Amino acid sequence: MSNSGASSTPGSSFVSDPSGSGASSVAKSDAGQGQQTHVAEGMQTTVMMRNIPNDYSRDMLVQLLDKHGFAKLYDLVYLPIDFSSQAGFGYSFVNLVSADVAERFRVHFQGFRGWELPSDKVCDVLWSAARQGLQANVERFKNSPVMHESVPDKFKPALFVDGVRVPFPPPTRKPRAPEISGKSS
Predict the structure, then answer these.
(1) Do the strands 81-82 and 158-161 form a parallel or antiparallel pair, or are they unpaired?
(2) pTM, 2 dp
(3) How would you write the pLDDT of the chain (185 residues) with one tens digit per residue?
(4) By C-alpha distance, which of 112, 12, 116 is closest to 62?
(5) Which residue, of 21, 39, 129, 156, has the greatest Cβ tally within 10 A?
(6) In terms of Cα–Cα distance, which of 39, 31, 109 is closest to 69?
(7) What is the fold of 23-163?
(8) Residue 19: φ, ψ to 5°
(9) Do residues 13 and 89 lie in contact, with contact meaning Cβ atoms separated by under 8 Å?
(10) Could you tell me the residue ranges of all domains in the chain?
């Protein structure tokens, strides 16, 4: 399956851009157009959920996952948000604790419509082609602009151990501030 087609509004500032390279390149990378981490078939643990209502927050998504039987079964959740509008881009990345759980998650949320907010969106769940596994995701984000000290926590990827939020590993270099509406903060 291809992950192409992730939503990104043309002209919008993708200020939670984890790579700091701008909306279009991040959307392409996150949507599976970037460099792929090679993982054996059936060993994938990272999924991309598409068509999430734009008013969802990371915390709302976590509550939804827990409510649907996945509490303590994921270790990373990232819901990219536009800082200017504070609206989500309509997709997220979730890393599950095992390939079996990831497959069950994928089947459960494929075609999902039971959002906590009014929405006609139908969830599409794909394997993340941009990166697979907890370590690959941590490496992707720990030095990225989204982890800069000026970024509110609600916009950052979250790590979990047994359902409890834990701190992200410290960066190995100082993350640069993200761009907001084409200007550095």
Answers:
(1) unpaired
(2) 0.77
(3) 333 333 333 332 223 333 333 332 233 333 333 334 445 556 899 999 999 999 999 999 999 999 999 999 999 999 999 888 889 999 999 999 999 999 999 999 999 999 999 999 999 999 998 899 999 999 999 999 999 998 999 999 999 999 999 999 999 988 888 877 644 44
(4) 116
(5) 129
(6) 109
(7) Alpha-Beta Plaits (3.30.70)
(8) -95, -15
(9) no
(10) 23-163
Contact assessment for residue 141 and residue 147, using Cβ atoms and an 8 Å cutoff? yes
- Measured CA distances, 79 to 39, 52, 154, 156 (Å): 23, 9, 9, 8
DSSP string, the chain: ---------TT---TT-SSSS-HHHHHHIIIIISPPPP--TT---EEEEE---TT--HHHHHHHHIIIIITTSEEEEE--EETTTTEE-SEEEEEESSHHHHHHHHHHHTT----SS------EEEE-SS--SHHHHHHHHTTSGGGSTTS-GGGS-EEEETTEEEPPPPPSSPPPPPEETTEE-
Return the structure tokens found at 151.
Answer: 């970024």
| CB contact at 8 A, 49 and 26 | no
Expressed in angstroms, the distance from the first to the final Cα of the chain is 38
Euclidean distance between CA atoms 102 and 108, whole angstroms: 10
